[in-house]
Amino acid sequence: MTQQPIPLDPSLAPPGTRQFRDAGGIPADQWHADQEGETLVPTHCCFCGVQCGMYLRVNKSGKVFGVEPRNHDINRMRLCPKGINAYQQVNHPDRLTAPLLRRSRDEPFREASWEEALDFTVSEIQRVQAAYGNDAFGVLGGASLYTEKTYLVGKFARVALKTRHLDYNGRLCMVSAAGANKLAFGIDRAGNPFADILQTDCLLIAGSNVGECFPVMTQYVWGARDRGATLIVIDPRETAIARTADIHVALKPGTDAAFFNSVLHVVIREELDDEAFISGHATGWQEVREKVAEYPPERAAEICGIPAQQIVQVARTFARAPRAMAWHARGIEHHSQGVENCLTVINLCVATGNIGKPGAGYGTLTGQGNGQGGREHGQKSDLLPGGRSITNDEHRRQICEIWGIDESELPPVGTSMMEMVWQMQRREIRGLVGICNNPFVSLPNYRVVKEGYDNLEFHAQFDFFLSETATNAHVVFPVTTWAEDEGVMANAEARVIKHNKAQEPPPGVRTDTWVICRLAERLGAGDKFAFAGSREVFEELRVASAGTVNDYYGITYERLEETGGIAWPCPSTDHPGTPRLFEDGRTYHPDGKIHMQVVDWHPPMDPYDDEHPMTLTTGRTVAHFLSGNQTRRLGALVEQTPRPWVEVHPSHGFRSGDPVRVVTRRGSEVFPALVTEAIRPDTVFVPYHWPVPTAANALTIDALDPRSKIPEYKVCACRLERAERIDEVPEPPTAPGHQAYPETQVSRTDPLPPTAPQGRGTAERS
After folding, report:
1. Model confidence over 700-715: pLDDT tens digits?
2. What is the pTM assigned to this prediction?
3. Are the C-beta atoms of 200 and 609 separated by less than 8 Å?
4. Strand partners, 140
5. Regarding beta strands 487-490 and 495-499, do their DSSP bridges make them parallel or antiparallel, or are they unpaired?
6. How far apart are CA 717 and CA 605, in angstroms?
């Protein structure tokens, strides 16, 4: 019996649900609010790249006090633990409500007026640039900012500061996938919408702990399984999603390129490749064939530490499926050959003809809420708005015309986030503005990061909680949460969605937009930053992106609220958007072809030896997000996962809760053991959401992918030692005169690993 296509028409919904979804906060039909005067404000979660729809509950005093899931197309009434608790940060007692200032790091912070904080910041910017040149000052943005703000960050650095040194923390997220997509397809985004997963016959997930990092994405995986799709998971750990897979490949970290080259070797050897598709749509095939001929399963199995037959099984399963899809995340991207790892997955999809069709394609799961939109419009060191290249003369001319500046005023390309830290170490960068990032927790090799930031003569940081990085600054600007402003984000499927303002910010708090514009005004560029808010910025962004690959021109706030989201490119207001790419068989390269790329595997940058024979790999856990500056303050999440741990195989002789010292060439830290058979014997795992002395990133290596400049978080050499005492988790930083909210800190000193089972064979906790 032929499987009927699943209807994708968003107007098809059970009675009442469409009215409720589109009601703009007014309950539909028989629905009634729990409190008199309560309003439901439709918006989206602030955390990962799934961007689940939700309603924020606002009381009659105008304060956010709760959340309800929303029947949005993305999440269908589902929220994960982080989404359920996100609202609690809006009116949290740890919120910063006044600028913090000190003239020297030898002084304590004191609260200051906005005028003093802005004036001092501008005077320091001018002093540093007058003494050392414009490029002595840098800007680091963030991929959890609304796209309007990321546009402003890039414009502020290049127009107001006139510096080339600009980058953002999305450099730690999916830039390897971005680089691979641009090389292969000429466009930087996923090729298929989430909904296509429901129509596939084989789903391959590589390096993505979907069940914990993207829990609501699991509904699409289950939907595909319900139709009979085969699930293949590539991961050194038997994660929650891997335990449900038909095939789980527990390869050694850092060997992904060898594995996928070998899978393609088998596809070619058994004549399972789609020669008609390749000849009509791709270049570089012969060179790829010659290279993967060097990776028979026997060789790759030795490199990857897996059975050769498993490589054959994956190749046959994926290539024989009528429709197959591959999605991946940081597990294959956080490597010194992260771009090449992604290219090997693309090569497999192209070789089997799985591109540009319902249920057949390729995509990346975005870690940060605006990981996709955060790099599209100008805060990445090599990009201008609309995804234009800053090294392209015509692209530079176009943006200078829109911004009203002379082409000679636009700085050249800058360096990446980690490279900027190295420049701080060398005192080439003397001043910095950081916005929506926390490098003291999120960047690798903490000692190097701390030294770089300590060398800054001036540092200002924007945040709504005092982060570990902000505690090292001279000025901290208290800014709004996502619920106190409006703006757009682009989720992992490149669907642009709109967040709505639910409450006014606390007294003393300003939007990032307001602060950037006031700084620009004091720097003499006020005429270029005359924006009242996000709407005015978005209108300029639309114009700045028009005609580019990343075209937002046809997207308006009104259309987003009416439709629930529009996938770019969208060149006109009557264009429906582009949820699925390459349906016409053409890519965004001038020749319209897919440019297949040759990849040769190389070992990780941190070599193994007798002193460091094992692999440390890092990642997220379901209760926390990125550097943890938000989630480590929310009681339910702290209680669920109060501290980091080290996952170790039973063969090492530890018991759960034992103090285990993890030693790398950067240092050592002691964690409680979580003993489980769900990890390779030669590998250990530590989640990275906590600061020193419990920071996984005090141990990781700051080696970079030469193309994407992403750090190699997922593999570094280590050894294990027995220890006497587990390192304590510090309290989150708080403003002067405050202490960490006690209700959220009850579980913080718990010395044992989490109570939730992390995998098959996990020891029970008494």
Report:
1. 999 999 999 999 999 9
2. 0.93
3. no
4. 167, 434
5. antiparallel
6. 9
